[in-house]
Design brief:
two-stranded antiparallel sheet, Alpha-Beta Plaits
Length: 113
């Protein structure tokens, strides 16, 4: 599972944002089910930032959000993210030099199909 939180950060607040994001990433990394994470800034617009984390499952991510450390260090940052979908299930992946691996959805069948 992939979680992508995007932020618009004015230049004068980027140092404080970066410190808050580092603390949030560290708190998330200490939870069970966390696979990886990174903080990135847009090359085309320095005010555009993203925090990307990967998780074993939706349940692992939801349990992580309930931990005290995450509530203290990550929730305030995540509350600043843009109001848009942020959690995505992986439906296909490929490692370098390998074939695409297709994964079935964990979600119930979509009613609109």
């Amino acid at each position: 599972m992939l979680v992508l939180n995007r932020f618009t950060v004015p230049p004068e607040t980027q140092d404080a944002f970066r410190e808050q994001a580092h603390a949030a990433l560290a708190a998330l990394a200490r939870t069970s089910g966390y696979l990886s994470g990174r903080l990135a800034r847009a090359l085309e617009d320095p005010a555009g930032w993203t925090l990307v984390t990967e998780w074993e499952s939706v349940g692992a991510y939801r349990r992580a959000l309930g931990s005290f450390d995450v509530k203290v260090h990550a929730t305030p940052l995540l509350a600043r993210s843009l109001d848009e979908p942020s959690a995505f299930e992986t439906l296909a992946s490929a490692a370098p030099g390998s074939d695409v691996v297709i994964t079935a959805s964990d979600r119930a069948a979509e009613p609109w199909r």
